[in-house]
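Q: Hi! First time doing this. I have a protein sequence and I read that you can turn it into a structure. Is that right? Here it is:
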Amino acid sequence: MQKLQKGDSKLLNAWAFYDWANSVYALVISSTIFPLYYGALFRQKNIEEIVLFGLSIRSEALISYVTALGFLIIAFISPLLSGIADYMGNKKFFLKLFCYVGAISCMSLCFFDIDEDKIVLSLISYLFALIGFWGSLVFYNSYLPDIAHKEQQDKISAKGFSLGYVGSVVLLLICLAMVMSVDNDLERLQMMKYSFLLVGIWWIGFSQYTYYYLPNNKNENKLHKNVVFNGFKELLKVWQQIKELKSLRRYLGAFFVYSMAVQTIMIIAAYFGEKEVQWGSDSKRTTGLIVSILLIQLIAVLGAWLTSKLVAKYGNIAILIGLNFSWILICTYAYFVVTPNDFYIAAAFVGLVMGGIQSLSRSTYSKFIPEGTKDTTSFFSFYDVAEKIGIVIGMFTYGYIADVTGKIQNAILFLILFFIVGLLLLLRVPRK
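A: Yes, that's right. Below is the predicted 3D structure, encoded as structure tokens:
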């Protein structure tokens, strides 16, 4: 096949289509069907805790600890592998590797069980699915400047996001129809297992279109010790620069703190709703939770749009302060959530501020990078690693408090402290 030139529409569309392929993990595995399946297993066996490596751990804490471990691994290997891929030109190899690891791990979740002899292997499947998804995104995103000219990047990136949203919703609705087509709990669990298979097949199958057109720029460079640690050296260089930039340094500190709470809430929302809300029946729980997640996603789009309008009038930092204050109110409300209607209201407000704070945080960071900076990729690599480490701290804190106190609401309430500290740190950030 003839190599397509940078900026070619066929190449751009093929790149964007990977979002259609992989976003099913984020919606079906991370946000809806797997949390439902995980909670149903514990209810079915009528247990609250699992003994693992001699420790008794509550179900909600267990999944938090494994998630934190996954993001810790990603934070470590991302700069390491990025440095190797840039030097050797084999990012397509790593993209495929993480895709196949993630997709096959999703399919292996069909065998996920909490029996003593299966729990470790089951959690490893969950862990590798998470690493596969987030690891592949590192190399997928890094392709953007290779395949698109600067004036094309915003548009094709948005197209990828849109394709990912549509594709994941399509598969989620198929999975929901499968789960709701049967009457008893055992059959529902089986349909959920089939959903995990579909995610893996969908991810691998549709990604082939992307791989067919993406360029393979492998060169003759040989791997050596200095190259392995190039990524970490670049992060260290960025940190040395950030220390000299007062506005960026203060903003990054504030972002690091409040992002811990934002990302943790996004990950645990489904587990919270599955366990703490009084749905009345398993079928209502399944339908209600999926409706809630779809509600969050739809309103997040509106939230991002509203935020962009408010920023134009009041400025980035002022709106970020307002969003952090909104999160404090939402977390306080979440402490008292009991009924499905309570959860729907909380989900609507989470969606409204979630879409805004995610898009605004990244664009604010971009604005604080000095004009004329050539190596912006390294600055954003630093941003991504900071975000992942924040998720590790947030998820571990959430899991530990839920485990020790025996109540998820206490962990949600504790996240308020992150938002309060983040708000106070934002007040110290210069407006320009």
